[in-house]
Amino acid sequence: MNSFCFRPLMGLSVALAAISLGCRPQDTITTYEVPKAEAIQLPAAKPSTGGDSESIGEPQRMLGAIILHKDQFWFLKLTGAIDAVAAKEAEFKQVVQSITFNEAGEPKWELPGGWSQQPASGMRFATLTVGEDPKLETSVTVLPSGGGDAQEGVLANLNRWRNQLGLPPIKVAQLAKESEELALPNGQTAVYVNLTGTAKPTGMGGPFAGGRGGLDRPFAPPTPAAPSVAASTDIKLTAPPEWKPGKVGGMRKAAYVIEGAAGSGEVTIIDLSRGAGDRKANVNRWAGQIGLSALDDAGLKAALKPIEVGSLTGDYIVLIPPPETEKGQAILGVIADKGDKTWFIKLQAPTAIAMQEKTAFEAFVKSVELP
Predict the structure, then answer these.
(1) 371 Cβ contact partners less than 8 Å away, ≥ 6 residues apart
(2) How do strand 39-41 and strand 312-320 relate by DSSP bridges?
(3) Helices (H), strands (E): how many in the chain?
């Protein structure tokens, strides 16, 4: 059973120092035979996300629901003209409250008359069209919870949605007042919101785009908690001895904590269905987590480099924020496909630590044999 209880967050604060690197020297360790990815330094993201280009600056209503199930956040969202969305609120709630999950962890729902389901595309698990209005549709997306506090995940995403409508962020103490808890079958619950505001320009995709969520640090931060379980035995890999085993479970098939003078970072390996492997959407989700602007198609093509992932070839990107960016988080990310799954290998840490561990991370990626 998963449910959300709105209570103060405890025990998850991580001190992350702001790093100013200036000119960075080249890596001094060159013994690993791994393709090197060019580090790219992107401008900080403009404070704007979400919204249809046709409705920017127009009054909008958004209905949204977040469900936590088996270490995954499921997001349902319907946005459009205020009156049109208001007329479909009862039906939207009906869909949310009908949701059950099958053995594979995928949601099933009952659609009202006039609704229809479209197949998965990009980061969407499904699109639910609402009646005959082509502008009304409910997006269904999914992402791993990251193993952090459920309230942080909910808060980050509610504040992202609020930002899309030009609304100020809320704090955890306001969650109960600004949202509603809907009962689902099998004892589960969904966090539900009904928001009205003004649509803003979009620059990012994916539920965690923007990353800040009104918190004091980026969402899904490195978690230097005591290690609990080592990497999944389904994966063969070789990790540097100084990396400490971290928390695994669900989609987190392996995790390591990296500690240094500049703070703590984390390396994770997760898997999702092949439909969630869109490179542009995932890279821009990562960019948003550390406060960077989205890449266009040309920028993505230039930034992604091939890298060996065991016997496979994956796509590798190095995301480094400008030195003045608050907290100075960097991400080294690899995306690789195998069978019906897409695998994500990611290092997120203060920039100084990420650059220090870059060569070791690349060698680690090369050692990974996916099941």
Answers:
(1) 234, 235
(2) parallel
(3) 8, 17
* Contact indicator for 309, 368 with CB cutoff of 8 Å: yes
Q: Quick check: 191 and 197 in contact, CB under 8 A?
A: no
Query: Token pair of 32, please?
Result: 């690993």
Q: In the predicted model, is pLDDT for residue 326 greater than 70?
A: no
Least confident window among 101-110, 223-232, 318-327: 223-232
How far apart are alpha carbons 73 and 2 in whole angstroms? 11
β partners of residue 259 = 264
CB 340 within 8 A of CB 61: no
pLDDT in tens, 138-192: 999 887 765 567 787 788 888 888 988 889 988 888 988 999 999 999 888 999 9
Q: Which of 341, 371, 338 is nearest to 274 (CA)?
A: 341
Task: Return d(Cα 305, Cα 298) in angstroms, integer.
Answer: 13
Which phi and psi angles does 164 have, rounded to 5°? -60, -25
Q: What's the start-to-end Cα distance of the chain, in Å? A: 29
DSSP annotation of 4 reads -
Residue range 39-46+215-367, CATH number:
3.40.1000.10
Written as six digits, the tokens of 237 are 């890999």
The C-alpha atoms of residue 79 and residue 138 are separated, in whole angstroms, by 8
DSSP assignment letter at 318: E
- pTM here? 0.50
Nearest to 207 by CA among 152, 274, 161: 161
Cα-based distances in Å from 370 to 146, 236, 317, 343:
20, 7, 19, 8
Which positions ≥6 away from 216 have C-beta within 8 Å?
13
Task: Provide the Cα torsion 44, 48, 49, 52; round to 10°.
Answer: -130
In terms of DSSP H, where are the helices of the chain? 82-86, 89-97, 150-164, 175-178, 279-289, 297-303, 351-356, 358-367
Neighbours of 109 (CB within 10 A): 18
Where exactly does CATH 3.40.1000.10 map onto the chain? 39-46+215-367
